[in-house]
Task: inverse folding
């Protein structure tokens, strides 16, 4: 997932470790979940573009997955168990051909929309096809690349013939034909583009105002493009066909556009409706966390999660002096991760990283530290490498960062790096840019700086969408948004990406992704800094807290409020 798209995923529902600071089943005396009541969601970012074609989510998202069911979905369990793909509308996670270029799904019996009409395979085909319409853009881009003959398709409004790559031989069967082997297709099938859309009810760009529900809730109100979203029970949803969503509350009221400090203050106070409130996009900051930690009641209402996400330094090796691997290695040794962690909010909110892949089994995490600097950096080793690189008296470089106060690519992190490198004889000049300018500059091959802060998050919990966009040379984009910041085009790396993509055994694939991460790490094209930790408050009447290693945040499909 593009780094610029991470906020969309986090707002919709990101990925994670089970809660460590709270009773996983909820605070209070009676922790048994009950049906009924209203769950309030307090968010900073509005749930914009509430159309399955336009949403860019991880695992179907958080609020969206209450309305849109997909062929597969994420397992709604705490911790590592939550990284598994499980069936949703389909009877299984998909049946691949021998070379994983054809995937076949069969729909469960008895699936219906909110009006009681049956869900068919043709509806899923149509839902996918409309996601290609230019006016409904915004969703995950994989299908355009993966499906045979889909590259130039403009959607059903302009091309009524549809996509031959998707076949529906009967009402319960759907078959996908791919350009190349894709063993991780079941992960992709969790995206909302795989939600069924009845053609007769499609209202184009207005569909988001009242999309036809296939999930446990239906939309009854959508104000100001998702700023206020109200969901009520879909009486035609059957738990017998849906093992994942608990759907305890009768009503879900999503209120957005709120300041993060206000959200945390309201959740902390838990007055009135806020006692049954959660947030899907607002973390506790360092100061707020310090206050919460000192209050036993508040501390019991903090969910802790880890999304598959890495903050790192990126190098452009086409720009001097970063064309010299010894300079890149010197900076890797000089980094003081302890000071970086402090700048990111402390060890409760950030964990040090020496690998590009996150520290989770599903990604194929393989421990390595090619340039061991300890907690505080190794300036002497850095000076030694600089001398070998022809810079015995040190050098001066410019570090580009964002001015956004995000504790990730912001001035605090840049300053910590500046201080650490100074000890190694490297003078760092800081270039802070406004968020849009920063994003435009670092993602354009023509303007990409030599030394800058970056981050990357996963579209699903696997090494594939983490390593391929950053290190596969065939994904270098010369006339658009480019994420292969090191401009790496190594035939052996590209070939290994292809070889792993052929694997349908995801455990075996994970091991190969981990080995590839270790191999790429030797090239010192990035300096992994830290993985963020999410700490989020919830109201005192909220029960049944589930936080998976897929999303990292409380899963509202599991929450009860009575």
Result:
């Amino acid at each position: 997932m593009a780094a610029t798209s991470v906020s969309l995923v986090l707002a919709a529902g990101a990925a994670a470790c089970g809660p460590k600071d709270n009773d996983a089943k909820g605070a209070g005396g009676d922790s048994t979940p009950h049906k009924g009541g209203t769950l309030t969601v307090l968010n900073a970012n509005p749930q914009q573009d509430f159309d399955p074609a336009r949403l860019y989510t991880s695992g179907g998202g958080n609020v969206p997955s209450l309305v849109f069911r997909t062929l597969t979905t994420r397992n709604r369990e705490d911790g590592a168990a939550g990284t598994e793909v499980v069936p949703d509308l389909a009877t299984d996670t998909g049946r691949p051909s021998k070379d994983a270029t054809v995937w076949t799904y069969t729909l469960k019996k008895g699936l219906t929309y909110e009006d009681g009409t049956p869900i068919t395979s043709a509806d899923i085909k149509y839902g996918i096809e409309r996601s290609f319409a230019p006016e409904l853009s915004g969703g995950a881009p994989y299908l355009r690349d993966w499906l045979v003959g889909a590259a130039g398709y403009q959607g059903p409004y302009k091309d009524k013939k549809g996509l031959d790559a998707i076949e529906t031989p009967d009402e319960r069967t759907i078959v996908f034909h791919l350009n190349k082997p894709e063993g991780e297709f079941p992960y992709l099938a969790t995206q909302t583009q795989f939600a069924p859309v009845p053609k007769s009810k499609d209202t184009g760009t207005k569909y988001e105002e009242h999309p036809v529900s296939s999930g446990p809730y239906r939309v009854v109100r959508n104000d100001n493009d998702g700023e206020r979203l109200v969901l009520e029970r879909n009486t035609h949803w059957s738990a017998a066909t849906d093992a994942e969503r608990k759907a305890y509350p009768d009503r879900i009221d999503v209120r957005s556009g709120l300041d993060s400090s206000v959200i945390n203050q309201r959740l902390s106070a838990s007055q009135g409706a806020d006692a049954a409130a959660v947030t899907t996009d607002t973390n506790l900051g360092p100061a707020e966390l310090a206050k919460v930690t000192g209050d036993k009641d508040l501390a019991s209402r903090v969910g802790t999660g880890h999304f598959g996400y890495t903050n790192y330094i990126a190098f452009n090796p086409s720009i001097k002096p970063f064309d010299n691997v010894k300079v890149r290695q010197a900076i890797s040794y000089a980094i003081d991760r302890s000071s970086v962690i402090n700048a990111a909010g402390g060890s409760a909110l950030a964990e040090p990283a020496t690998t590009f892949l996150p520290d989770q089994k599903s990604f194929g995490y393989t421990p390595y530290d090619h340039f061991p600097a300890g907690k505080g950096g190794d300036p002497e080793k850095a000076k030694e490498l600089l001398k070998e690189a022809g810079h015995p008296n040190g050098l001066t470089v410019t570090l580009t960062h964002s001015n956004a106060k995000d504790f990730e690519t912001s001035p605090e992190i840049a300053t910590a790096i500046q201080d650490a490198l100074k000890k190694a004889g490297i003078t760092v000049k800081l270039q802070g840019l406004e968020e849009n300018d920063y994003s435009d500059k670092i993602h354009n091959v023509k303007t990409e700086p030599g030394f800058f802060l970056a981050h990357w998050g996963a579209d699903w919990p696997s090494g594939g969408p983490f390593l391929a966009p950053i290190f596969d040379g065939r994904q270098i984009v010369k006339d658009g948004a480019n994420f292969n910041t090191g401009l790496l085009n190594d035939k052996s790396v590209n070939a290994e990406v292809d070889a792993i993509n052929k694997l349908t055994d995801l455990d075996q694939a994970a091991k190969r992704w981990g080995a590839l991460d270790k191999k790429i790490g030797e090239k010192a094209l990035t300096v992994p800094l830290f993985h963020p930790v999410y700490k989020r408050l919830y109201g005192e009447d909220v029960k049944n807290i589930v936080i998976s290693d897929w999303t990292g945040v409380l899963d509202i499909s599991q929450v009860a409020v009575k």
User: Anything to note?
Assistant: The chain has two domains: 38-253+538-554, 309-533. Residues 309-533 form a domain with the Dipeptide-binding Protein; domain 3 fold (CATH 3.10.105.10). The first strand starts at residue 38 and ends at 42. Residues 1-29 have pLDDT under 50 and may be disordered.
